[in-house]
Amino acid sequence: MNSILQTSFKDDTDGDLIVRVRHMANILDNLDAYKTELPPWIPGGKQFREHADRLEEVVNLPGSGKTKDEERTAARENTIRTVNFAVQYITMYSEHFKDPSLLENIGLEVKHRTYSKNRKLPGKVEKFIAKDDAENSGAIVVQVNNGIGKKGSVELQITEGDPTDEVSWRIVDYYFTCKFHVNGLEPVRRYHLRARFKNSGGNGPWSDVATVVVS
């Protein structure tokens, strides 16, 4: 079961959306996820307030007609898009720290997505190859058998410690192809890797552990 944020605002009036976005702006100012330096493309409270002001400005323009309606629609869509960008960032932050409570109390409804018991889980990664990338220092090449499917991915984990110690494993990334590169590793070091398929039904079993020494 995954926690997701409800970001459909089709039932919100323009006034409701303006109030909601300004309320969220105040919340974002105090979120842990926003207390570190962020790249400019992750919107925060400042951008939320700018969108709310713009939407309010357009709504309060005198008169009516096609031009005003188009401006209002554009302002509304830009506002919702910015909210969605912020929600994606907050969700990733929550996933990284494995703390779904971070999604609560930010002005949006939290829904819990469940999957049908009849949904087929992916099978085991039977073919799992990890080898040193001879052309690039501190890199390895990973290949899995084609069991991803149209809506699946591969979760890759790595450890430099004891592979029998679950705590030592950490996620490298999620991939949507069967062959990919992992960069930024320390040369002349032994790494253990494992992979599993993921789809809308959940996680498949882990592959056998592969070990590689990076050059």
UniProtKB/TrEMBL annotation:
Superkingdom assignment: Bacteria
Residues making up the signal peptide according to the UniProt record: none
InterPro entries assigned: FN3_dom (IPR003961), FN3_sf (IPR036116), Ig-like_fold (IPR013783)
Residue spans crossing the bilayer: none
Name the record gives this protein: Fibronectin
